[in-house]
Amino acid sequence: MKKNCKNQDSIPCPMTAEELNAMLEHSYAQSLEGKGRPIDEVFDELEKEIILKNK
To answer: pTM of the prediction?
Structure first.
């Protein structure tokens, strides 16, 4: 469920602060273990998703 962020624009948030922290902790642990994806690969994928959404 989306929640309103505490900001002046009331932008909907896809997760709570606790959920975000848990996800970031998991990602950080993966990076320390060398299990993460290369940053270029991640940003290429995000760029493709943004382009598709804006068509």
So the answer is: 0.52
